[in-house]
Amino acid sequence: MKNIILLTHGEFSQGIAQSCRFILGDVPNLTALCITLDESVNQTKAMIENAWKAFDNSAPTILITDIPGGSTTQSAIGILPEHPDFYLVSGLNLGLLLSLAMLELTDDREENLKSIRSVIEEAKDTLVLVNDMTAADALQDEEGEL
Amino acid sequence: MIKVLRVDDRLLHGQVAVAWVNFYKADVILIANNQVITDQTMQMAFKLATPPGVTLSMKSLDGAAAVINNPKHASRTIMVVAKTIQDAEYICGKTEGAIKEILLGGLRSGEGKRQIDMNSYMSEDDIAVMNRLEQAGMAITMQPDPTAKKLTCEEIRKNFNKGN
After folding, report:
1. Which residues of B touch A23 (CB under 8 A)?
2. Distance, CA of B133 to CA of B42 (rounded, Å)
3. CB spacing of B146 vs A25 below 8 angstroms
4. Under the phi-then-psi rule, with left for phi > 0, alpha for psi from -120 to 50, and beta for the rest, what region is A129?
5. Which of A35, A137, B128, B137 is the most interior residue, by most CB within 10 Å?
């Protein structure tokens, strides 16, 4: 059990939440927050706070922002003093979100940090220039090898 | 062990590669399809779709049966993916009870097919094959993703009989 809050410039978070549910089906405790040009850092912090309160559970919370260098992440960093137990991840993409949505968190923070770190490393590897991929080797068949 | 055989006409795509592989904790995806062994575009697409830490094996129907029958892979958690229920029956016929669970989903519409579930359609022959597999003791259900409603054979037949 865990909570996920997405925070992006514009409606990216809502779209990617829908894409995530397209693949995984129902994903509980996933909230998409969008900021516009009008929101101040304090208003955005209040949005995150309200989203978190609405979860109505004490499970760990992962807050994911779109880009590290943006007011989304600045607001998210601003909320860490009040919520030092949040896991804050930046660089949202669908592969990363799917992996985090499927990740099982425990009540051991060190353990959780480790598994989130490894999900991030794997997500980096999913950025590929497909043109650079070589054609698959001729496949072995019939011998019962994988 | 063979965890499940998924019948899905797109073979390996997001819902299968991400949601079902995670659900079954599979460490091998075995694609059983006679076209995939010569089609390099399919091979590249499936390679890209395979999650980290999971072994991808692409075989003909006979090649897949040979993998399933190889006792060497007994410690692996294998998810077999086939395109049609007819292919599934062929594989089951060559693997003597190794497959116990068949999961249907993502079966697109076509000539003579009737709607069973939101994204799945079956023909009269598909139903006949399903009935034979069910009689052979296979546990068969239809479910697009792990959180969606699961249909039993009984419900699949009921939906087929009322659909057109």
Report:
1. 14-15, 18-19, 145
2. 28
3. yes
4. beta
5. A35
Chosen from A115, A139, A140, A143 to mutate, greatest number of chain B CBs within 10 A: A139
Chain B's closest residue to A143, CA to CA, is: B66
Structural domains in chain A, CATH included, are: 3-132 (3.40.50.510)
Which residue of A lies nearest to B52 if distances are taken between CA atoms? A122
**Which ipTM score applies to this complex?**
0.81
Lookup result for tokens 């006792």: B71
Amino acid, res. B25? K
- List chain B domain ranges: 2-162
Active site residue B73: no
* CA atoms of A136 and B42, how far apart (whole Å): 10
Q: Which residues of B69-86 are buried (b: 16+ CB within 10 A; e: fewer)?
A: eeeebeebbbbbbbbbbe
Active-site entry in B9, B10, B13, B157: B13
Classify residue A136 by its DSSP letter. P
A6: left (phi over 0), alpha (psi -120 to 50) or beta: beta
Mean pLDDT of A60-85: 95
Q: Which fold has domain B2-162?
A: Fructose Permease (3.40.35)
**Rounded Cα gap, residues B81 and B83, in angstroms:** 7
